[in-house]
Write a structure and sequence with these properties.
heterodimer; A: about 300 residues; mainly alpha; globular; B: about 325 residues
C-alpha cells in the first residue's frame, strides 16, 4: 500500500533531533531559525484564517436592530426562532447521515471485491468507477432531474440522498479498496481454516479491522453531502425542503443582507465538519482520498 | 508495494490455504471454493453496480440523447444530430468560458500547489506547535464553500467592505473586486487557491513524511546547497504524489461550480463564467437543454481522456 495513505504527517520523521544534540553549535542557530519559522507560520495562518475569523466574529456581534452590547448569542437564537434554520439543519443532518451510512454500506463490500478479486471484470469495473468520479456532475444532473421529476423525487430529500450516494460511492469504493489492500490475506486464511465463508471473513475479519478506513470513507462522504451546493440548487425548490447551503444562500435574496444572521447560520453550518475534523483528524487524511487513488 | 501483493487475489490465496493442497483432491476443492467466492463477490458488488448504472450510466446515455435533440427540460423533442454541438462550438460565450476555465484551472492547480508545497516544507522543519498549525491550515478546505464564499463576499463585495476600505486607507484607490471583470477573475482564482491549498499541503506532507531524512544529512555532508537538496532530492521524491495531485486538482477545478457561482454568479459581464456555470445557466436559466448538455458532454469527453491517462499512470507506477 502506498505510503501516502498510511503515513500520517504527524508521525513523520523529524529532521535531526539527535543531530542537534550531537552538534550543539548548529542547534543554537537552529533554535533561532526555529522561532523565525514559528513567526512566519503564525502570520501566514493568521492571514489565511481571516475569512473564518470574520464569520465567527460577525455571528456573535449584535445585529443592526439589537440592543445588546458586547458579544452575544442573540443572532443565533434569532436565526432559529425567525427563520427555518432548525428545519434546514434537520434536513442537512438527515440527508448527510443517510448518505454516509448508505455510501459505506455500498462501498465497503464493493471495495472488498476490488481489493481481493483479480478478474478482467473487476479491473474493468475499477477503471469505470475511476472515470465516473471525474465526470462533471452537471452532465448527470439534467437527465436525473427529468427522471426524478417523473418519480416525484424533485424537491425531495430522498432524491437528494440518492444522488449524493451515487456521487460518493465511486471514490468511497476506491478508498475502501485501498484500505483493504493493507489488511493481510493471512488473517482471512486463518478464518477460512476455521470454516468461515468468504462473506463471513469479510464481515468478521476484514471489516472489523477496518475502522480507520471506514471512518475515513465516512468523513469523505459526510463532507461531500454536507457541503454540496450544485445538486441542492437544482433539485430543491421549497423553503422547508432546503438544506443548510440553500438556507444560507436564501438570505441573500433579500434586499439588504443582514450579515449577522447570515454569519450565525454560517457558523451553524461550519461547526459539524469542524467538530468531525477536530475529533477524527487522525483518520481525516486528504491523503485518504488522494492516496486511495494513488495507491492503486 | 503491498497493493501488488494483495492483487494476487482471493482465489489464489484460498487455493494456497486448502489443507494438504496437492493432487486431484485439492483441485476439486479449489474449483468448488472459487465458485463460492465468485458468487459471494457477485452479491457484494451488486448494490454498487446498480447505483453506478442508475446514477451514472443511465444519465450519461440520456445526456447523449438530450445533446442530440432539441427540446427542453420537460420534453426531449426531435433529433437534430450535431446541431447543438455546432451551436455551442460556434458561440463566443462557449470559447470565452473555455478560456476562463483554462486559466482558472492553471492558476488553481499551480497556485495551490506552490502554496501547499511551501507550507508543507515549512511545517516539516521543527516548529513549535507544527501539528496545531497543520490542523488550522486545513480549515479552508474543511469549511463548507457556502460559508467561506459568504465570508469572502463580506470581505470584498462592496466598496465599503473591509478589504477595499483597507486599500483606500492605504491610498491605493478603491478596487471593486467583484464588479471589475479582471479583478473578479483574479478574486475567484485567489479564492480557489485559498480553498484548495490544504489539499496539496496534505498530499505533499504525506509524501514528505515517508522520505528517509538521512538522505539529506548525507547530501549536506557532500556539500549540497539547500536549493540543490530541494531540486535534487525533495522534488524527485514527491514527484509521483505531485503528479497525481496535479491531475486530481485539474479535475476538481474543471468541475468546480460553487466556488465561482457563489462568489460572482459568473459575472460581471460573464467574466468569470466557467464551462460548468455556463452549462448550468444554459439549462436552468435559458432552458436550452440541448446546448447546455452539449457543453457538459464536451467537458465529459475531455475529463474521460484526462482520467484514463491518470489511471494508466497510477497503474504503471504501482507496478514499479
Amino acid at each position: 500500500m502506498s505510503a501516502v495513505l498510511h503515513a500520517h504527517p504527524e508521525s513523520g520523521p523529524t529532521l535531526g533531533i539527535e543531530a542537534g544534540k550531537r552538534r550543539p553549535v548548529l542547534s543554537e542557530a537552529g533554535q533561532r531559525g526555529r522561532w523565525w519559522r514559528f513567526a512566519a507560520i503564525l502570520i501566514i495562518t493568521g492571514i489565511v484564517l481571516v475569512p473564518i475569523m470574520v464569520t465567527v466574529l460577525l455571528a456573535v456581534t449584535p445585529g443592526p436592530n439589537s440592543t445588546a452590547t458586547g458579544l452575544t448569542l442573540e443572532n443565533l437564537s434569532n436565526v432559529f426562532s425567525k427563520t427555518l434554520a432548525a428545519t434546514w439543519l434537520k434536513n442537512s443532518l438527515v440527508t448527510t447521515l443517510s448518505t454516509v451510512v448508505v455510501s459505506v454500506a455500498v462501498a465497503a463490500p464493493a471495495g472488498y471485491v476490488l481489493s481481493r478479486g483479480r478478474s478482467k471484470a473487476v479491473s474493468g469495473y475499477s477503471l469505470l468507477l475511476f472515470v465516473m468520479q471525474s465526470l462533471p456532475i452537471i452532465t448527470s444532473v439534467v437527465p436525473l432531474f427529468i427522471l426524478f421529476a417523473g418519480m416525484g423525487l424533485v424537491d425531495n430529500l430522498l432524491g437528494l440522498t440518492i444522488i449524493y450516494v451515487g456521487s460518493t460511492m465511486t471514490v468511497a469504493t476506491w478508498m475502501m479498496a485501498a484500505y483493504f489492500d493493507s489488511i493481510p490475506i493471512s488473517l482471512e486464511e486463518a478464518s477460512w481454516i476455521d470454516g468461515c465463508s468468504v462473506f463471513g471473513s469479510f464481515t468478521k475479519v476484514v471489516l472489523r479491522n477496518s475502522l480507520p478506513g471506514v471512518l475515513s470513507t465516512a468523513i469523505f462522504a459526510f463532507l461531500l453531502a454536507w457541503n454540496d451546493y450544485l445538486v441542492a440548487i437544482v433539485f430543491l425548490r421549497s423553503n422547508e425542503i432546503f438544506t443548510l447551503p440553500m438556507g444560507v444562500q436564501s438570505f441573500f435574496q433579500q434586499n439588504a443582507t443582514d450579515w449577522t444572521s447570515v454569519m450565525a447560520l454560517a457558523v451553524v453550518m461550519m461547526l459539524p465538519p469542524v467538530i468531525v475534523f477536530a475529533t477524527l483528524n487522525k483518520y481525516f487524511s486528504v491523503g485518504g482520498i488522494g492516496g486511495s487513488l494513488a495507491g492503486r | 508495494m503491498s497493493s501488488t501483493t494483495a492483487q494476487s487475489g482471493l482465489s489464489r490465496a484460498r487455493r494456497g490455504v486448502a489443507p494438504g493442497g496437492s493432487g486431484t483432491g485439492a483441485g476439486k476443492r479449489k474449483s468448488k471454493l472459487s465458485a463460492q467466492t465468485t458468487r459471494t463477490f457477485f452479491w457484494l458488488l451488486l448494490p454498487s453496480v446498480v447505483l453506478l448504472v442508475l446514477i451514472h450510466g443511465y444519465p450519461l446515455i440520456y445526456a447523449a440523447v438530450q445533446a442530440t435533440h432539441d427540446g427542453n427540460l420537460l420534453q426531449t423533442g426531435n433529433f437534430v444530430g450535431g446541431e447543438n454541438f455546432a451551436t455551442v462550438l460556434t458561440s463566443p460565450a462557449f470559447w470565452k468560458a473555455a478560456q476562463f476555465t483554462l486559466w482558472f484551472t492553471i492558476v488553481g492547480v499551480f497556485g495551490s500547489w506552490l502554496v501547499g508545497l511551501g507550507l508543507a516544507l515549512l511545517l516539516r522543519t521543527r516548529i513549535p506547535g507544527a501539528g496545531t498549525f497543520k490542523v488550522l491550515l486545513l480549515l479552508p478546505w474543511v469549511v463548507p464553500i457556502v460559508v467561506s464564499s459568504t465570508a469572502w463576499n463580506w470581505l470584498v463585495a462592496t466598496p465599503d467592505s473591509l478589504i477595499p476600505s483597507l486599500f483606500r486607507n492605504l491610498g491605493m484607490g478603491t478596487p471593486l473586486f467583484l464588479a471589475d471583470p479582471n479583478l473578479a477573475s483574479i478574486t475567484v482564482m485567489v479564492f480557489k487557491v485559498w480553498v484548495s491549498f490544504p489539499f496539496m499541503m496534505m498530499m505533499i506532507s504525506a509524501a514528505l513524511a515517508s522520505v528517509d531524512t538521512t538522505v539529506y544529512e548525507a547530501a549536506s555532508m557532500d556539500g549540497a546547497s539547500r536549493w540543490q537538496q530541494f531540486t535534487q532530492i525533495t522534488l524527485p521524491l514527491i514527484a509521483r504524489s505531485t503528479y497525481i495531485s496535479w491531475i486530481l486538482m485539474t479535475i476538481f477545478c474543471v468541475n468546480d461550480f460553487p466556488t465561482i457561482y457563489l462568489l460572482t454568479g459568473g459575472g460581471p459581464v460573464n467574466a468569470t463564467t466557467s464551462l460548468v456555470v455556463l452549462a448550468y445557466r444554459t439549462v436552468f436559466q435559458d432552458f436550452a437543454t440541448g446546448p447546455g448538455v452539449a457543453i457538459a458532454f464536451l467537458m465529459t469527453m475531455t475529463l474521460v481522456v484526462i482520467s484514463v491517462i491518470l489511471y494508466r499512470q497510477i497503474r504503471k507506477s504501482s507496478v514499479e
